[in-house]
Write a structure and sequence with these properties.
The chain is α/β, with parallel strands linked by helices. It has one domain (2-223): Spore Coat Polysaccharide Biosynthesis Protein SpsA, Chain A (Alpha-Beta Complex), CATH 3.90.550.10. The protein has five helices and 13 strands. It starts with a strand and ends with a helix. The model has no long low-confidence stretch (mean pLDDT 94).
C-alpha cells in the first residue's frame, strides 16, 4: 500500500511559528511532525509516500527531497500557495496510487501508535475506512457516529475523525483538479453505506494551536518518546 501525507495547511492558529515554517514541519519532541509520520509509515512497511504542500512548499521539498535520507521514496505534489483543500489535494495526487487502495494521514497530527493497524484491505463494497478517536476538548460535538456491528459511519457526535483513512481510488476518480473539500464526499459515501470506521488504537493529538503543541511536547517528554 502507498500513502499520502497531507501537508498543505497554512496553520493560521500556530502563527507566528508558521509564518516561516510550514505547519507539518513544526517540531514536537526532537522531530518534525512530518518526520514522525514518515518513520512510523516506514516501520509499518510503507515506503512509497506522496506529500502534498502549498504554504512554504519549498521548505518541505527541500527538507524531504526524495526521501532517501529517511529510507523511503518521497514524491512531491506541490499545489501552489492557496492549496486545493483535502479532497482536491488527493485528486491531484491520484495517479501516484495507480488505481489501488491507499492510506492518507494528516501531517498536522501526532499519533503515538503502531501504523500497521491501518494497513488491511477494505472489505468488499466499502470505499473508505476512516479512523476515529474520542472527542477532544477542542471538538466536543464530534464528527461521526459509528455503528459497532456494521462499522458504518454517519455524521454524528460520537467520535472525531483523526485524519487517518484508507480509500479506494475510485472514490476520487473523475473529479477535476480543483479546490474540493472532503466532507461532502464522506456524506455521500455514508448515505450509500460505503463509509466504514474503526477506532484508532493509540494516542492522537491535533497540533492546531500553540496550546496543543505544548500539550504534545509535554506528553512526549512524560512518555520518553524518541
Amino acid at each position: 500500500m502507498r500513502a499520502m501525507i497531507l501537508a498543505a495547511g497554512r496553520g493560521e492558529r500556530l502563527r507566528p511559528i508558521t509564518d516561516t515554517i510550514p505547519k507539518p514541519m513544526v517540531k514536537v519532541g526532537d522531530k518534525e511532525l512530518l518526520l514522525w509520520h514518515i518513520l512510523k509509515l516506514k516501520k509499518a512497511g510503507i515506503t512509497e509516500i506522496i506529500v502534498n504542500s502549498a504554504h512554504l512548499s519549498d521548505k518541505i521539498v527541500d527538507f524531504l527531497k526524495d526521501g532517501s535520507a529517511f529510507g523511503v521514496s518521497i514524491t512531491h505534489s506541490v499545489e501552489g500557495q492557496t492549496g486545493l483543500e483535502t479532497a482536491g489535494g488527493i485528486i491531484k495526487a491520484l495517479p501516484f496510487f495507480k488505481g489501488e487502495n491507499f492510506l492518507v494521514v494528516n501531517g498536522d497530527t501526532f499519533i503515538d501508535a503502531d501504523y500497521s493497524q491501518f494497513i488491511h484491505p477494505l472489505e468488499k463494497g466499502d470505499h473508505a475506512r476512516i479512523y476515529l478517536v474520542d472527542n477532544p476538548e477542542h471538538n466536543p460535538h464530534g464528527d461521526f457516529s459509528l455503528d459497532p456491528v456494521s462499522k458504518n459511519c454517519s455524521r454524528g457526535s460520537q467520535f472525531t475523525f483523526s485524519g487517518v483513512a484508507v480509500y479506494s481510488s475510485s472514490v476520487f476518480e473523475g473529479f477535476p483538479v480543483e479546490k474540493r473539500p472532503l466532507l461532502p464526499i464522506f456524506e455521500k459515501l455514508a448515505l450509500n453505506g460505503e463509509l466504514k470506521g474503526e477506532l484508532l488504537k493509540g494516542r492522537w493529538f491535533d497540533v492546531g494551536t500553540i496550546e496543543r503543541l505544548n500539550n504534545v511536547n509535554s506528553y512526549i517528554t512524560s512518555q520518553n518518546i524518541i
